């Protein structure tokens, strides 16, 4: 390989030696060049001890950090919200999925224990002993052993596959023709959820109200991009596909309460803020809610503010029997669990959340700061003053449905 010397002469590499320095725990390279023009041999010595020492120091640091990372990972794995955990099932569907998780983990633990036990036995029982020079007996091609370690994994797969297939088919049952099931059509938008009850001709948004103990037959679609409907404590995920495919599944909530749901598919800038709530109530409360949702709209008492609200807001939103279907239905929004799906409203007995009026003002004064990329225009761009925005916020914060 041609090479140039310091004085411009050329030569060829004739020998390269890479040595390991045990004293300094580092590699060094020696390159010998023959420079024919001056008939001298120049030895170029490249010392990479600094690099070696640096690598050793990094490994020493890593050995100290890795155990700490393992401990913190174990501790932090217990952190999080109970209503967003599949480990706290609150319905039969989620319970069935959780049971499958426990079964698969139990099988894996048993396999792990057996494999490690066999490995430990082999390492101890068949270790090379002092003075032993002969080759141990070889067992490759042992038909009996090969049958055993092929049959055992097959048996484990069958044990896991049978309940898995049974659960998947049972939970994937289409209940759209079941007269006893409540039908709900779910439409995902960037970045909010729309819920339509075709049996009652009612549409709402963000809060899915369902009666306890009733199977809910869902039909899911999207108005824009791919989203995924997920209520961790009640059921697994189900996509809403932009190709027009309708996905169907069902779940139920045996107990009254509020269950948090999220979009589980990256769908844009505010994907993390695309939350919704499932509120399970008694059948009597659900019937009252349906009746109040179908009642005539209640508009602001101030006639000028009411006109502004109708002109600027009801062209997209709806309240009661008035308004459009383009944006979330605002009927009873003051009594919902959140504003814009992400600003939690404070409730008695809850530590988190802010007053609904504060959340409403925060949302209306600057929607983009709450949910970047959402399609709601800034009310100020529509010509509304701060006083009018505050008036609409107060009206909506007090617009509640009394059904519980």
UniProtKB/TrEMBL annotation:
Entry function: Subunits I and II form the functional core of the enzyme complex. Electrons originating in cytochrome c are transferred via heme a and Cu(A) to the binuclear center formed by heme a3 and Cu(B).
SUPFAM superfamilies linked to this entry: Cupredoxins, Cytochrome c, Cytochrome c oxidase subunit II-like, transmembrane region
Reaction it catalyzes: 4 Fe(II)-[cytochrome c] + O2 + 8 H(+)(in) = 4 Fe(III)-[cytochrome c] + 2 H2O + 4 H(+)(out)
Domain Cytochrome oxidase subunit II copper A binding, chain residue ranges per copy: 179-292
One Pfam family of this chain: COX2
Class of this enzyme: translocase
UniProt-annotated location(s): Cell membrane; Membrane
Needed cofactors: Cu cation
Chain ranges of the Cytochrome oxidase subunit II transmembrane region profile domain: 78-175
Transmembrane segments annotated in the record for this chain: 61-80, 100-124, 145-169
Domain Cytochrome c: 300-400
InterPro entries, per database record: CcO_II (IPR045187), CcO_II-like_C (IPR002429), Copper_CuA (IPR001505), Cupredoxin (IPR008972), CuRO_CcO_Caa3_II (IPR034236), Cyt_c-like_dom (IPR009056), Cyt_c-like_dom_sf (IPR036909), Cyt_c_oxidase_su2 (IPR014222)
PROSITE patterns, per the entry: COX2 (PS00078), COX2_CUA (PS50857), COX2_TM (PS50999), CYTC (PS51007)
Presence of the UniProt keyword Nucleus in the record: no
Protein name: Cytochrome c oxidase subunit 2
Cofactor binding remark: Binds a copper A center.
Tagged with keyword Translocase: yes
PANTHER family (alphabetical): CYTOCHROME C OXIDASE SUBUNIT 2 (PTHR22888:SF10), CYTOCHROME C OXIDASE, SUBUNIT II (PTHR22888)
Membrane topology: Multi-pass membrane protein
Superkingdom, taxonomy of origin: Bacteria
Keywords tagged on the record: Copper, Electron transport, Heme, Iron, Membrane, Metal-binding, Respiratory chain, Translocase, Transmembrane, Transmembrane helix, Transport
Record family assignment: Belongs to the cytochrome c oxidase subunit 2 family.
EC number: 7.1.1.9
Main localization category: membrane
């Amino acid at each position: 390989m041609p090479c140039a010397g310091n004085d411009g002469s050329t030569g060829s590499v004739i020998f390269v030696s890479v040595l390991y320095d045990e004293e300094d725990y580092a590699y060094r390279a020696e390159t010998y060049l023959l420079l024919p023009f001056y008939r001298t041999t120049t030895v170029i010595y490249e010392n990479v001890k600094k690099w070696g020492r640096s690598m050793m120091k990094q490994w020493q640091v890593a050995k100290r950090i890795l155990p700490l990372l393992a401990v913190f990972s174990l501790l932090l794995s217990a952190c999080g919200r109970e209503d967003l955990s599949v480990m706290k099932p609150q319905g039969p569907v989620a319970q069935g999925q959780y049971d499958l998780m426990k079964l698969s983990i139990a099988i894996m633990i048993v396999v792990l224990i057996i494999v490690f036990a066999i490995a430990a036995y082999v390492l101890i029982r068949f270790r090379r002993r002092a003075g032993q020079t002969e080759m141990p007996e070889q067992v490759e091609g042992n038909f009996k052993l090969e049958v055993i370690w092929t049959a055992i994994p097959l048996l484990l797969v069958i044990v896991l596959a049978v309940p898995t297939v049974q659960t998947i088919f049972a939970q994937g049952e289409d209940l759209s023709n079941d007269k006893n099931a409540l039908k709900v059509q779910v439409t995902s938008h960037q970045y909010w959820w729309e819920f339509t009850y075709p049996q009652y001709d009612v549409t709402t948004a963000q809060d899915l109200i369902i009666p306890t103990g009733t199977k809910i037959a869902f039909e899911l679609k999207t108005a824009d991009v791919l989203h995924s409907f997920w209520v961790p404590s009640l059921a697994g995920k189900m996509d809403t596909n932009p190709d027009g495919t309708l996905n169907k599944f069902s779940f139920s909530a045996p107990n009254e309460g509020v269950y948090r749901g999220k979009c589980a598919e990256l769908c844009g800038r505010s994907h993390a803020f695309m939350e919704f709530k499932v509120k399970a109530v008694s059948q009597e409360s659900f019937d009252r809610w349906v009746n109040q949702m179908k009642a005539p709209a209640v508009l602001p008492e101030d006639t000028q503010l009411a006109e502004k609200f109708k002109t600027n807001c009801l062209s997209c939103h709806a309240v009661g029997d008035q308004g459009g279907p383009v944006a979330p239905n605002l009927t009873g929004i003051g009594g919902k669990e959140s504003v814009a799906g992400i600003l939690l409203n404070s409730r008695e007995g809850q530590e988190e959340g802010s007053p609904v009026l504060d959340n409403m003002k925060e949302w209306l004064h600057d929607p983009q700061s709450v949910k970047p990329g959402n399609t709601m225009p800034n009310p100020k761009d529509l010509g509304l003053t701060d006083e009018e925005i505050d008036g609409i916020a107060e009206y909506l914060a007090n617009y509640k449905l009394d059904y519980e």
